[in-house]
Amino acid sequence: MKKLISLALALTLTTALLAGCGKTASAGSSGAAAASGSSQFEKMTWKFSTSGGEQSTWAVAGKYFAELISDATDGAVTVECYPSDQLTSGSQVDGIQALMDGTTDISMHSNLIYSSFDPRFNVVSLPFLFSSYEDADAKLDGDGGAALQDVLDQYALHCMGIGENGFRDPTNSKHEIQSPADMKNMKIRVAGSALLNREYELWGADYANANWSEVFTALQTGTYDGQENPLTAADSASIQEVQKYCTLWTGTYDCAFFCMNKDLYESLSPELQKIVDECGHETLVYQREISRNQNDDIIAKWEAAGVTFTELTDEQARVFKDASAACYDEFSEELTPELISAFTGE
Q1: Distances in Å between the alpha carbon of 104 and those of 28, 100, 108, 188, 271?
Q2: C-alpha angle 141/147/150, rounded to 5°?
Q3: 45 is in which domain, residue-wise?
Q4: Which of 187, 194, 234, 323 could be bridged to 229 by S-S, CB 3.0 to 4.6 A?
Q5: What is the pLDDT of residue 38?
Q6: What is the C-alpha to C-alpha distance for residues 210 and 189, in angstroms, rounded to an integer?
Q7: What confidence category does residue 192 fall into, taking pLDDT thresholds of 50, 70 and 90?
Q8: Which pTM value belongs to this model?
Q9: Which of the residue ranges 99-103, 126-130, 188-192 would you say has the lowest mean pLDDT?
Q10: What angle do CA 56, 62, 67 make, to 5 degrees?
Q11: Strands 157-167 and 253-261
């Protein structure tokens, strides 16, 4: 699960095939402007919103995108960053709606939140859809991601690419989880998704839904035995202080859509559209890299705090995969066979 070096090399090679968006892109796309000492683009200010907090990789990626766009347009385009959905009083759903309405211009939000608008966005959360980070990259940058971008287009959103929240690793205070039997009767807080609920039900857990803000106290008091989330989200809530065990697996995954309001995008010149797409691509390469670096740092930090990590073997993972395989049929109509096929190739 920690094959960062090969991933970074692969993504770097991909990025190299595209025009860069930092200072090199600025020189290439704004050559005439550089000669005259001014930008060829009109001044604009765009608002970027994300549900991630100030230190989250999503907010950091937004600031990185802002720097790239500013460099590439000789300062003509400014991107203001608003983490924690500040512009919608912390509401993630309203954060996405604001992007659709054009109240904000750019955003990065999870597929789980997008599924509030359309259940098809939940397809990436099918059990064991991805076997590794590399497999997730290949599918999200390939046919699967293209199919999801077609769905986003139906909501008047231009998708610059798909970022990462990560694999949702379960933690608990009882014992190691190596098989579905270890989850039996374990009360685990699960994000409010019918698909995730069903997966944990099939794995034997006594799942429950609750607001994330309530989870730490519920774990601390023993109301819940565990929770499931990407490590970055769990660490931001100091979950390691009230959990003793963490299972590293590829059971469920979250992605993040990096989108621009489509009306805004289509109002831009072809030259500026090209810059937006190139800078968006470079931003997502960066976001995935720092997200995975953070995972390594979090594992080391939690181990020092006494958390025991269990990484499933292929055989152990296969038992969980087989136990939850029914989800593919049960949610086929909701997610659509075509969209599932775009990811599975079947």
Answers
A1: 29, 8, 11, 35, 22
A2: 115
A3: 4-165+255-296
A4: 234
A5: 57
A6: 7
A7: confident
A8: 0.86
A9: 188-192
A10: 130
A11: antiparallel
Q: Any idea how long the chain is?
A: 346
The identity of residue 138, as a single letter, is: A
CATH number reported for the structural domain that contains residue 200 in this entry: 3.40.190.170
Same domain, 200 and 215: yes
For residues 104 and 118, state if they share a domain. Answer: yes
CA 201, CA 175: separation in Å to the nearest integer? 19
